[in-house]
Amino acid sequence: MSSSEEYDAAAISSALPAELATAVSAPAHLPEATVRRLTTYLRVLDQLVDEQATVSSQDLATFAGTNSATLRKDMSLLGTFGRRGVGYDVQRVRVLLETTLGLTREWRVLLVGAGNLGRAFAGYAGFRSHGFRFVGVIDSNPELVGTTINDLEVSAASDLEALATKHRANMAVLTVPGVAAQPVVDQLVAAGVHNILSFAPVPLRVPDGVTVRRVDVAREIQMLAYFAVMGEASDGT
Amino acid sequence: MSSSEEYDAAAISSALPAELATAVSAPAHLPEATVRRLTTYLRVLDQLVDEQATVSSQDLATFAGTNSATLRKDMSLLGTFGRRGVGYDVQRVRVLLETTLGLTREWRVLLVGAGNLGRAFAGYAGFRSHGFRFVGVIDSNPELVGTTINDLEVSAASDLEALATKHRANMAVLTVPGVAAQPVVDQLVAAGVHNILSFAPVPLRVPDGVTVRRVDVAREIQMLAYFAVMGEASDGT
DNA sequence: CAATGTGAACAAGTTCACAGCG
DNA sequence: CGCTGTGAACTTGTTCACATTG
């Protein structure tokens, strides 16, 4: 369903010996829990890369807030080879994780919703460094059209398809109110944007071949409330 | 470690027959996955309450994006009694969920970080309706101090403890940059705020008795990238 | 000999399928 | 008869413990 995409896997690893990038195994189906942790490992490694050449499962796990057994199992799923008695090569694992996570491609992101949440997202550091590039911003509020966010001019809702096509957007971030979410998703899908991160608190219907991920911040504060009450209860016991 | 909190469990259910609130069982340790779904059920029920008195596990599950077996198991953990052949009483389950999740208490929330993300969060609809009330906003940027967000005046960082104490804040939302997060957490804990929702992309150290929940939006777009690539791959097969 | 890689035990979460009840 | 409640099967994820290796 999705059209063929140009690969750009060597972009980041180009500064490194070719051997490093070659170690990458076929990115088989990884458990979601593992993928979540890989993103954390990557962030830690990004900081570590200037400080040390090698890192033990123990240390990396601690920095990432997990335990060494979990980390080693995660790594083994990537078919990686640490050195026994030594640990993992920081740079090598970094490249491996970037490639595995799909962060060496160029993700041309369309931001739909230029409210506070959209602006927060656009301003977030670290996106550009991992393959994400905002190519356009859309908002239905005429007052916002023409203003700029992060050097990007806000476009009208009617320009969605044209903008997506022009910049060959292959990802969208949705920060619109719940009621607006489904119609926007339909437009995005029609415009060929098949990967969507939504912050709207509603389930979204999409055809096969479209990947949607939802983040629900309101849910998180409610879950905190539950665990807060639990925490108190077990405190006294 | 945390001080005793006044219960206010009857606040929302006060408009209902007392019998409804009485059906509430001891909120035993619920699986995190169940808690996550409960928040979704509640949102659906909030919309359904004006339309129908009763709902089947099948229907509620569909609206919530899950299946009826999961929903019934979740409900059974709450010790709820649906009516066989009929379904669940919408109002009754709504009250049950609110109570279970701890949303009938008054959560006096301190917002630390008045940037875009903080403003987005403060403006989020639905908080007030579920027990959350922002009692103060803090930011370290002097230019923001004195401006207002959602009718609340932004206070200086040095006022954190005084503000927390004055309003008896029992929850905080952290929307500060990563490097600032740990120091702020330490201040919050010292000020007696023992429940924290953090958007900073760093693990936080807190003493026992403090509940922290972390939301990492940068992680979500990276996970989307992974699943996007996966989706393409399995498309062709 | 320090630290990986992994089978096996364990724990958590989901789905099935059906008995039982209103 | 329709729909709940739940044991049991199953799937997914985590932790243990130890053989293995540079």
Automatic annotation (TrEMBL), chains A, B:
It is found in: Cytoplasm. One of its GO terms (molecular function) is DNA-binding transcription factor activity. Its main location: cytoplasm. NAD(+) binds at G113, A114, G115, N116, L117, G118. GO terms for cellular component: cytoplasm. Belongs to the transcriptional regulatory Rex family. It comes from Neomicrococcus aestuarii. Homodimer. GO terms for biological process: negative regulation of DNA-templated transcription; response to redox state. This is Redox-sensing transcriptional repressor Rex. Residues 102-203 form the CoA-binding domain. InterPro entries: CoA-bd, NAD(P)-bd_dom_sf, Rex_DNA-bd_C_dom, Tscrpt_rep_Rex, WH-like_DNA-bd_sf, WH_DNA-bd_sf. HAMAP family: Rex. It holds the Pfam family Put_DNA-bind_N.
